[in-house]
Amino acid sequence: MLHNHTPPTIRAPFANYAHGIEIPEGHRMLVCSGQLGASTDGSVPEDVEAQAEICFANIAEILRSADMAVSDIVRLNAYVVDRSCLAGYMRARDRFIGSHIAASTLMIVSGFSRPEFKVEVEAMAAARTAS
Predict the structure, then answer these.
(1) The CATH number of the domain where 101 resides is what?
(2) CB–CB of 81/108 below 8 Å?
(3) Has residue 94 been placed in a domain?
(4) Rounded to 10 degrees, what is the CA torsion of 31, 37, 42, 45?
(5) Per-residue CA distances from 71 to 43, 48, 56, 93, 94 (Å)
(6) Contact predicate 68/125, CB 8 Å
(7) What is the value of pTM for the model shown?
(8) pLDDT value at position 2?
(9) How many domains is the chain built from?
(10) How far apart, in whole angstroms, are the C-alpha atoms of residue 74 and residue 31?
(11) Is 125 exposed, middle or buried, given 0-12, 13-18 or 19+ CB atoms closer than 10 A?
């Protein structure tokens, strides 16, 4: 069981995330590289929300390959190229994460390796080790 820490002595989070996640002893970690919004055929949608959907679908596949689930995510780091990308990213994120609470950071950056990319998402997950 992961423990979320959002003390009442500091400002509440701006969205559906925790200020801290404690990973108890006996868990294994998975760290995902940043995922970009490129489909398996190499195409990149113009829309940031569609790109974010691909990022999260990739993360779901990486989690599955480690026998983990969205509920094992402890942290998401996301990078977008403009404030106008925030709403589309957040809609995709909220659909992906659902009611699960993880630590989260969202940053605006000047760009990525190719100009058509508008969002990149990293994830970290922790799951209890088999007994």
Answers:
(1) 3.30.1330.40
(2) yes
(3) yes
(4) 170
(5) 29, 24, 13, 14, 13
(6) yes
(7) 0.91
(8) 77
(9) 1
(10) 10
(11) buried
The residue segments making up the domain with residue 40 are: 28-128
Instruction: Decide: 32 and 124 in contact? Cβ < 8 Å.
Output: yes
pLDDT at 131: 63
According to DSSP, the residues that pair with 10 across neighbouring strands are none
pLDDT less than 50: residues of the chain: none
Range list of β-strands (E), the chain = 3-5, 20-22, 27-36, 73-80, 103-108, 119-128
Write down the pLDDT at residue 16. Answer: 85
pLDDT of residue 117: 98
Question: Strands 3-5 and 27-36: what pairing?
Answer: unpaired
Q: Which of 59, 53, 65, 45 is nearest to 89 (CA)?
A: 53
